[in-house]
Amino acid sequence: MRSNLHACHSIEGLRQAARARLPRAVFDFYDGGAEDELTLDDNREAFRRVRLLPRVLRDVSRPDPSTQLFGRPLALPMAIAPTGAVGFGWRGGDIALARAAARHGIPYALSTSATASIEEIAEQAPGRLWFQAYILQDKDRLRALIERARVAGYEALMITVDLPVGGKRERDLRNGLSFPMKLGARNIGQFARKPWWSLEMLFRRPPAMPSLAGLKALSADGRQSLAGRNYDPAFDLQALARLRERWPGKLIVKGVVHPEDVEGILEAGADALVVSNHGGRQLDGGVATLDALGGVLAQAAGRVPVWLDGGVRRGSDIYKALALGADGVLTGRATLYGVLAGGQPGADRALDILNEELIRSMQLCGTPRISDIDRRLIAGSNPFHTHAG
Prior knowledge:
- By secondary structure, this protein is of the alpha/beta class.
- The protein starts with a helix and ends in a 25-residue tail after the last helix.
- Helix content is 40%, strand content 12%.
- The chain is built from 15 helices and 12 strands.
- Strands 3-12-11-10-9-6-5-4 form an 8-stranded parallel beta sheet.
- Keywords: Flavoprotein, FMN, Oxidoreductase.
- This is (S)-mandelate dehydrogenase.
């Protein structure tokens, strides 16, 4: 497996390796977006539209991609974003991702819908840990999860605010996907064509989502995604402020794209923002995160770190986000493809690829330190250059 992973020279290579080992329904769950997948595609296109304007004759012999967040060092300006149900694609995948993050000196965000518990991650993959809390209608359950994260020593609580209801993920609807996964007329042929994955799931107990145990079954229907039914659409700024009062650590608010939302979120006590559209899995037709970044940055005005996720597949994408003002990026699918292709070695491979590509971009653009990267490296932003097209 390791040699196969090293034949993957890009995140797209890891994506294709994951696709080859998983039944289509399972791969589509991780790979797909909402409805026509316009926003999913535009997250990538936004990076493709940006062109860099490199500097030359700079000493780039010792590039340093390290930075800081919350006064603590980061080996790279990135973190692993929360991704749900990873264990259905690779058993133990959540722990594998967390260990890979710790090995690379970056934070790992555990999803509420993970297939590992808060305590398992803290015990088996110690590092900079964030707990991503979906706002459940069951407030006793939500309070208990947040308290468990505090006791386990998680650095930050990440509140995802773009999921008042679940998006309509039509790949899942077409595939008849449900959790726990069940054989049916629409997917039995897919599972039969992937015997190694299917036999492993058949002869061992299916993975559980411990943070969601006992809540309503997760099954696709025409109204919303597998995820949205237990979440609270009434959650608002006042509720966010009350949650802030109960959490002693750092508070990260993820899912911000509209500039007019920024002030209220900061007044409620957020310590960092993540410009995110849930990877194109919620509102289809919503703005690409890279296009939304500038407005959020302008309103935040340097008061808190502003990170970005959505569409990051290359180290040069990380570089472009930094040049446009982001303090860092979260990777969801990029590292997920790695773990789905090959467990922890696959997750490590994904991070190695992104790290190598980021460093190469820094050298080719004449910027040996993260602090050297700014908007003047973006074609069309530099007053001496006009980008045609």
